[in-house]
Design a protein that fits this description.
This protein is of the alpha/beta class. The protein contains 16 helices and 12 strands.
């Protein structure tokens, strides 16, 4: 009863259609509800027609006008769809943003964002990040005449030196995929803001449960909702969140103009996944940390790259800007490619597969899998070596996962 009343309060506070037409999301929830509550309720209210508690899948391309010149709240699903709007409001709320937009994939979100920039503009990008982002920037966005510099943003002096009068955007990822390096969100935002440079952060690895970049002054947050937000490895999707009115408007315009939006079925699945985000992240975090500690003590492991370990060079920064570390991390097997290959070929519970953030555990070899689209020298200079292995620790019993590593290492 209580929940219903709250939902009703939101319903009357939030004009039904304005998000779809103006790109405005009202987050009446932010500030007085906590994360677990918001992840279940934000953006959602019992359906107006039948009172369905779960947001219906509005699997329709178009909506009937009420009469001539009397449009319905949503008129065409590329421009806006009720299922998508519920997810957009929910994700925006969880990130502490005013505007949220969701896309067909994480890369569609990035493509839409980078469409803001054109010939003559300069973008600074962290030099250690998701391989697909690297490919999009070097093979697609660079062709439009956008100048792109890959810079190690852990070095703030290097960032200052890279900034030019035409620098419009700084794109970063923290923790980075797959090396688990961290970037200081506040320090980078503090350098960018006075110069009018937009900062954007790929927050896929942490999810808003463990890290909220907007709180540190970052302008735009990007997600591959394929990963932790959905969490069940059964959908691909992406999101962009911002508090900036002009950027919010621009992103909505581009989502509609470019047609990069997510479909209603996919939005429904991500919306359902988010309801358990907090519980999943707690458990991913616990399992991953326990396995990282076990691996760190293993004689066949050279180094474990996990920001939650005291041995991580940026552990203090991790504690400053993250509330937890998530379930994904990397480690280097003693030896080279052969040893790494023998390990990843012999795990039974950890499936050898790309992607991360699902309930099931995955293992992969970045050099030949997720990061094979990066040129060899770029991989090498970033520190992606052939003995590097990345795991996405799932929600299985951690003792079974450790036992799996124990038997697989015997084959190495
Ligand atoms: C997977 C991923 C992406 C790309 O998202 P898709 O949904 O696969 O298009 C971008 N950034 C990071 C960090 C990712 O892990």
């Amino acid at each position: 009863m209580r929940t219903r009343n709250l939902a009703f309060a939101v319903c009357i506070d939030r004009p039904y259609n304005c998000g779809a037409f103006l790109g405005i999301n009202f987050n009446k929830w932010t500030g007085y509800m906590r994360f677990k509550t918001l992840s279940i309720h934000a953006g959602q209210e019992p359906d107006a027609t039948y009172g369905a508690v779960m947001t219906p899948i509005y699997q329709t391309s178009t909506f009937a006008f009420r009469g001539a010149n009397d449009p319905p709240p949503f008129d065409y699903s590329r421009s806006g769809n009720p299922t998508r709007k519920a997810l957009e409001d929910c994700i925006a709320t969880l990130e502490g943003g005013k505007y949220g937009y969701v896309f067909g994939t994480g890369m569609a979100a990035e493509t839409t964002f980078f469409a803001i920039y054109g010939a003559g503009d300069h973008i600074i990008v962290h030099d250690d990040l998701y391989g697909g982002t690297y490919r999009l920037l070097t093979k697609v966005i660079a062709n439009k005449g956008v100048a792109i510099d890959f810079v190690n943003l852990r070095d703030l002096d290097a960032l200052q030196r890279a900034i030019r009068p035409e620098t419009k955007c700084i794109w970063l990822e923290t923790p980075t995929n797959p090396l688990m390096n961290l970037l200081d969100l506040k320090a980078i935002a503090d350098i960018a803001k006075p110069r009018g440079i937009v900062t954007a952060c790929d927050n896929t690895f942490c999810s808003p449960y463990f890290q909220r970049p907007l709180e540190f002054g970052i302008d735009v947050v990007m997600h591959s909702t394929t990963k932790y937000l959905n969490g069940h490895s059964d959908v691909v999707g992406g999101a962009l969140i911002t508090n900036d009115d002009a950027l919010g408007k621009q992103i909505y315009f581009l989502q509609n103009a470019m047609g990069t939006c997510a479909g209603p079925m996919d939005c429904f699945l991500v919306l359902r996944g988010i309801k358990t985000l907090a519980l999943r992240m707690e458990e991913h975090n616990k399992n991953a940390l326990e396995i990282a500690r076990w691996l760190a003590a293993h004689p066949k492991v050279e180094v474990v790259l996990h920001p939650g370990l005291e041995s991580h060079p940026q552990h203090a920064l991790a504690k400053k800007q993250m509330k937890g570390y998530g379930g994904t991390f990397s480690f280097k097997v003693k030896g080279d490619r052969d040893e790494a290959f023998r390990l990843v070929s012999n795990t039974k519970l950890f499936t050898l597969a790309i992607s991360l953030g699902g309930v099931e555990s995955l293992i992969e070899h970045p050099w030949t899998m997720t990061h094979s689209s990066m040129p060899e020298d770029a991989r090498a200079s970033a520190g992606i070596t052939q003995n590097l292995v990345r795991v996405s620790v799932g929600l299985e019993d951690v003792q079974d996962l450790i036992a799996d590593f124990e038997q697989a290492f015997k084959q190495v």
